[in-house]
Amino acid sequence: MRRKTPSVKIGNINVGSGHPIVVQSMTNTDTADIDKTVEQIAALSRAGSELVRITVNNHEAAQAVPAIIEELDKQNISTPVIGDFHYNGHVLLTKYPECAQALAKYRINPGNSDTKGRDTNFTTIIEQAIKYDKPVRIGVNWGSLDQNLLTEMMDANSKSANPLSARQITINAMIESALRSAMLAEEIGLGHDKIIISAKVSGVQDLIEVYRLLAGKCDYPLHLGLTEAGMGAKGIVASTAGMSVLLQEGIGDTIRVSLTPKPGGDRTEEVLVAQQILQSLELRSFVPQVTACPGCGRTTSTFFQKLADDIHKYIRENMPLWRVQYPGVEEMNVAVMGCVVNGPGESKHANIGISLPGTGEDPKAPVYIDGRLSQVLKGGNIAEEFQKILTDYVAKNFSEKR
Length: 402
Ligand code: SF4
Fold this sequence. Notes:
alpha/beta, eight-stranded parallel beta sheet, five-stranded mixed beta sheet, elongated, binds iron/sulfur cluster
């Protein structure tokens, strides 16, 4: 059961417990490079990112924002674009009103404002949000926590009869920083339903603890994610482990998987991972799922691995069109299995399943449709024939719902 929150409208996307959990991502281009930034936002959007954040770190970036949004409009890409501000957001949002207007939301890190002028910085950004009717995310981060607040809480703890650990105080300080900032934003005049909160850390157990505490202390929608999740399997597994526990408890209204791409790697991977987390938890459906067995000594050829991979790619490639033409297709399950041991059984549970011949088995592949044996494929064109059966099934079963 989702934790109850107000709805926060970000452009054409609603975030909160009354709406599906939203997938978001962030560009890693130089925002001042309009063409590259537009290209990456478009790619992230096509991959399924429902919100995209860009850094607005200097004057050139702030000046580029209106042109970026204009170009996205020309390409019919309506994905809301969020500006990420640190240190100088108060200057940039005031000096460049077209930037302030074009962005769909502002992300503010309360720890990254000048310590001396902190209230001034924060107040100015909130005033701009009120002026342009934009929501904000108050995004506290373990690596850039408000040092004055942390020192204040550490001092108070040292005088306590039962002092807490430094880790616990840091977690408490993150929550306190987020909630004090949100309260201040509301005092300035920002609506309660214009605030989203995040408190990102890089450890899985810390993430779970900080969000559980935060969720119990406020009703703002929460943005979940590990900060600096890392590369490859480590980043994917750590993000999945931490977020799954929280999502299962109903905590989290938007998510991001902060993967470090390989040099030249594909930024859209983080979107696919975020979607897969939600789909594996059966919280949302984005794309038909391909169930494939891991293979073992009973199937020594790589044919079934290749077929599973080809079907997976074929579905992904067709989804932009299928999503429009065949609503509901994202709920479909396809099974590609390596031999007779679990093949027919697993295939029968899928909408469409194929059980390939294992080593030494008859060279034939039974295909099951909606739990029933439909036909048996033989010969050298099994992959092509199965792809055609899949395409026909999608057209027959999902087009009627248009
Ligand atoms: S279905 Fe067959 S090939 Fe696949 S893992 Fe099971 S026994 Fe091995």
